[in-house]
Amino acid sequence: MAPTAAPTATASPSATAIPSPKPTATPTPTKATGPSATPTPTPTPTGTATTQTSAPTPFPGKTPSGDANADNGALALLPDSNSAAILTVFNSINSYRASLGLAPVKYHATVAGLAQEWSNNIASREVIQHRANFWTDPRALNPNNGAGEVIAVRWDRDAAQLVEWWKGSPGHDAVLRDPRFNVIGIGITYTDGNWQTTPNRFTMWGVVNFFGYTTLPSGTVTKPGGTGTPPGTVTPPADPVAACEPGDKYQPPTVDLKSAAIRSGADLVSVAADGSVYSYPSLGNAKYGAARKIAQGFTGLKELFVSDWDRDGVFDLIAQRTDGQLLVYPGRASGGFGSPGVLGHGWQSLTLAVGQWCATNRLPQIVAMDGSGGLWLYKNSGMTYIRSQAAIATGNPAVRLSMVDYNADGFQDLLTVEASGYLRLYRGSGLATPRQEARPIVGAAWTDYTGLRSLQGVDGPGSTGVAGLGTNGVLEYWDLTSGRLTTPVSVGGGWTGFKLAQ
């Protein structure tokens, strides 16, 4: 039983997060043992989105160095030409439409870029998932007559069978035969999955975006390969510092977490002044169950992070201590945590965020900001000393750093809280370096929050958001599924004196 001073989650007040369009017919994306997909309905767009060695020496702050020993990571994309597959899918869709007396769809390179990026994204992460609000992306070119997205995967490279699968699924078939659509973009990605050894590892991933326009966008062509169409070779995202390069292929297991200390990515974790750690199970809709004490002795912390660091399917705790130690406590499916592993020393001066920054590496990584605003990426070496770092960007010095998919594009972004209170966005690209662009200010007065926590699944499968603990002891949650900050929901009060784990 938690002490009386432990914060207790309360019911949400009348203020609620602004929901994003919810596909009513879309099931929860799941891995399947055969080709599978999830249909997206065809909403009417309302506008455009605004847009060394293992010696225990202090590692942070050293000159960026390479790491010859690659770490476990993700299945990388294969740089094989997809031109023929794209043309096959395009022709198959139009042949089907012609058999129904429908006008053929045309092709646009910009829309194709949108589809290809998402195909690469989900293939890298090995998930079947729709891009939230894809029709509001500037690369959708302002469709005003409907939008749709279909996704399918295969163990072989028979692109025509992607279309056959869609035709056999009512939700997908409705998108293929929708008369409003006149422009599409196709993304095809290859991976080196082997269905004989790992049945759920697919080798071809396909995404098609459909849009309807009253006036065709400039650059529309009659088929792939026309003027303006990019080369058909799928090139894995270039990593300028090789910091994201994965090593061994790694497939995280599915673990029953009902007895684990932390049971979902939507759960909250806090640390009391006496070092006791509490977990609050998510009940959905930004509501939480009673506190459970899951650990003790966590004093002397600068920050505490929740992450499945070794990707064994169980959430771990990473402690950044004020004495400079960085420790990882492995979670156990049966409950509690194992003895800590030492990830490094000399970390006390850095501001950290932990998460899956690299889209092509399934192991979490650490992004750190130093006192001058420099951003550094640290590769995950498992439960041992971190031995590589890379400088990835420069920015404005900040007092807090959080990693979250802010704009709902499937890539992790960075939110920094500056001493002025400004909340600044560094958009991620799935690579080591953030996007090379101006860093917009997306909020003010954020020094009123002593902790930020990225959460997944709070409002349902696939949802993403961020929780903030205010100096007044009130915990709030912002849903980010729409790609921007929305009206916060109050999760509960009584958190004064507690530290919110990131």
From TrEMBL:
Pfam families, A to Z: CAP
Matching InterPro entries: CAP_dom, CAP_sf, Integrin_alpha_N
Positions with biased composition (Low complexity): 1-19, 27-37, 45-56
Region (Disordered): 1-74
Domain (SCP): residue spans on this chain: 91-196
Extent of the signal sequence: none
Top-level taxon of the source organism: Bacteria
Protein name as it appears in the record: CAP domain-containing protein
Taxon lineage: Bacteria, Bacillati, Actinomycetota, Actinomycetes, Micrococcales
